Amino acid sequence: MKIYRYPSELAEKQLESVVNRGLDLDKAAIANVERILEDIKQHGDDALIRYINRFDAPDLTIQSLRVSDHEFESAEKDVSPEIMQSLRRAAKQIESFHRQQLRKSWIDTQRPGTVLGQLFNPVDVAGIYVPGAQGGKTPLVSSVLMGAIPAKIAGVRQVFITTPPRKDGTINPYILAAAKLVGADAVYKAGSAWGIAALAYGTQTIPKANVIAGPGNIYVTIAKKIVSGTVGIDMIAGPSEILIIADASANPEFAAADLLSQAEHDPLASAMLLTSSEELAKDVSFAIERQISKLERKEIAKTSLEKYGAIFLVSDMTAAFDLANRIAPEHLELQIEEPFEYLGQIRNAGAVFIGHYTPEPVGDYIAGPNHVLPTAGTARFSSALSVDNFIKKTSIIHYSESAFKAEASDIIRIAEIEGLDAHARSVKIRL
What we know:
Layout: E1 3-5, H1 9-19, H2 27-43, H3 45-55, H4 69-78, H5 81-99, E2 106-108, E3 114-122, E4 125-129, H6 133-136, H7 141-154, E5 158-163, H8 173-181, E6 186-189, H9 192-201, E7 211-213, H10 218-227, E8 232-233, E9 241-246, H11 252-263, E10 270-275, H12 278-292, H13 298-308, E11 309-313, H14 317-327, E12 331-335, E13 351-354, H15 360-365, E14 391-399, H16 401-417, H17 421-428
Parallel strand pairs: 1-11, 4-5, 4-7, 5-6, 7-8, 9-10, 9-12, 10-11, 12-13
Antiparallel strand pairs: 2-3, 3-14
Helix pairs in contact: 2-3, 2-9, 2-10, 4-8, 5-7, 7-8, 9-10, 11-12, 16-17
């Protein structure tokens, strides 16, 4: 990895390339996705199965779109007890964390003659998208847990999962085991933009969802962006990213491994280190060279680090945190001697990993907080997937006659300023 002194012209140029790489969507891809969405909207299952047969499973039929009870039973036999134990532990801890997010409806009667408040209700149907991951070879079971568990805790009546089938028309048994563990109501064999379209508009087989959550490839991302407003979505997610702030106490081998954990995701992934220690910067760079050759996905990691990786030498920790807030990373690791002392300086980050023994994969799989996080600088205004994504808030308003009359003149004045005569009249007629 290249080492840059910050601030400098070269450092600024590299920063700009990282910050601006994010959510630019190809116009041709957008046009393709729009056609797919309209096709599914107009023709339902017939269009859906056409795309599935063409791109995923040539022999899949409409009748087998929904995973059967027999397929779930068969999957259970293929998953080892050790894997199930790990999934149960992860699910338990994810559930425990997300239960803290539940909010209660409330009523306020402090102002005489008024009753104000909010009702919190779950949506009726949630669709959780789980990526196919190399044709089902690397099942993303964590996406099942992170999507479905918050929806279930929110009280969503029906939680459906869509995921691309393998070429033979089956779903990886690990995905089905995780889906059963979290209580998903059904799993459907539909991926990419057509899977999102099926959830957004509904087909004869797949019910229409109120909210769609879960990560995916560029076609999934574009599809979610287009259907947003027709249905709720969690966020528009870009490539993965990690930013490590480290001081001389950091272990360079740890830091290098953590940077590579995100670089292996995608050629567009970003991995950066901020440090005031020149010695650590050099040691981490050398450690990456040693470690990257052992990775199965080393070519992806190399491309990522060459284009969007960097080590920035800063003057001190204050400069490091100022720069981190500007970048607003998805994952922020603090590999520093007294990390808790600096928490108050963090304003923009998807998730913060504190200390030398809290690498990013801890949060990906088992710690409890959600791993669906804002990317591409959107942590400046966006948050992790949560129970709130599956909740609607309804306002409650009641005025007695006396309370109404006490405020009527103010309402009339504001309505008349806005030129809305009928608004003012609906108040005047009651006086």
